[in-house]
Amino acid sequence: MNELLFLGNLGTGEIVIIAIVVLLLFGGKKIPELMKGIGKGVKNFKDGVKGLEDDISLDDDSDKK
Description:
Number of strands: 0
Number of helices: 1
Oligomer: single chain
Order of helices and strands: H
Strand content: under 5%
Radius of gyration: 20 Å
Low-confidence stretches: none
Mean pLDDT: 81
Largest sheet: none
Distance between the termini: 44 Å
Structural class: mainly alpha
């Protein structure tokens, strides 16, 4: 559980360096827009997955009747 997904063992120094690089690449004004877009994308993805799960469960219920 000490590993952060595929990133391995990152320390505080590495995270700060990554944050600075991202800030330099995108600038202070673009980061909120980027995060907003990512949030909308994740929400749409979750809604799509939930819709598929609902469709599958409806198909299973109709097959049982």
